[in-house]
Amino acid sequence: MFKKILLRKRPVLAALGAIAVFALTAGVIRPVVQSRLYPETTAVSAAKKQLPIYCVDTRGKKQVAISFDAAWGADDTDTLLDILDKNDVKATFFLCGYWVDKYPDEVKKIFDSGHDVGNHSDTHPHSSQLSLEQNKENIMSCHNKIKQLLGYEPFLYRPPFGEYNDTVLNAAKECGYYSIQWDVDSLDWKELGTDHEINHVLNHKHLGDGSIILFHNDAKYTPEVLDEIIKGIKEKGYEIVPISELIHRENYYMDHEGRQIPDNG
């Protein structure tokens, strides 16, 4: 279990508590600056201008999105889908290609239940260490598996480990994808208990209009707390929509902290 958690979030753990870190590349030390508002995400180079979508300016609409990364087990799939259905909520599931290979019936259940099916790469590599063509190959391999199984072409991409750089984002863009991060991490991968997970999400300092919330489909406590979290979000006045409905498809720009903002002219 420790190994799985470490693999899943190692870049995040390395970044916690740091405002600036340094990356050693080809013998040259280069500064890497982390977003002030998103300390739970992977640091990106200060020289890079591109950002994925962390959250969305909804222009006053009280909407948020719930997302699940599916890269390991599938035992909780039915439970999660039942909870979502009971609460009349559509979510977004980011699937790895090997997960699609191993659990085709679960993939069909997710899709047939009306949830977004997104791309989480084929093999869950450290994408920032790959070339443009290697990233595109990894993205499109997963894309083609989903298309072949469902007859559906996904367009939402979440980089593995939350890692990205310009190469990763350009690869996703060239494959026809919007790159999606999150601004509210449930920390379910840390397995800190039911009360912690509930309180962390519902009282998160970034929870607001246009937030994207991160869960994992195989986290220990998420099946126990998801119903209460959904009800708590709704009690705060938010409508929960899939990411495909939350984001702006065109005429938008990204601010310096990863908020997608509609461009009205």
Protein architecture, described:
The chain has helices spanning 2-15, 77-86, 97-102, 104-112, 132-150, 166-174, 194-202, 222-235, 243-246, and strands spanning 20-25, 28-33, 44-45, 55-56, 63-70, 92-95, 116-119, 156-157, 178-179, 184-185, 212-216, 239-240, 252-254, 259-262. With 265 residues, it is α/β, with parallel strands linked by helices. The chain has a single domain, classed as Glycoside hydrolase/deacetylase (TIM Barrel, Alpha-Beta Barrel), CATH 3.20.20. Strands 5, 6, 7, 10, 11 and 12 form a six-stranded parallel beta sheet that branches. Strands 1-2-3 form a three-stranded antiparallel beta sheet, with no helix packed on it. The protein has a three-stranded mixed beta sheet with strand order 4-14-13, with no helix packed on it. The protein is globular, with a radius of gyration of 17 Å.
Topology:
Layout: H1 2-15, E1 20-25, E2 28-33, E3 44-45, E4 55-56, E5 63-70, H2 77-86, E6 92-95, H3 97-102, H4 104-112, E7 116-119, H5 132-150, E8 156-157, H6 166-174, E9 178-179, E10 184-185, H7 194-202, E11 212-216, H8 222-235, E12 239-240, H9 243-246, E13 252-254, E14 259-262
Parallel strand pairs: 4-14, 5-6, 5-11, 5-12, 6-7, 8-9, 10-11
Antiparallel strand pairs: 1-2, 2-3, 13-14
Helix pairs in contact: 2-8, 5-6, 7-8
Order of helices and strands: HEEEEEHEHHEHEHEEHEHEHEE
* Class of secondary structure makeup: alpha/beta
Q: Main beta sheet: strand number and arrangement?
A: 6 strands, parallel
CATH topology: TIM Barrel
Mean pLDDT: 86
Tally of discrete structural domains: 1
Give the CATH level 1 class.
Alpha Beta
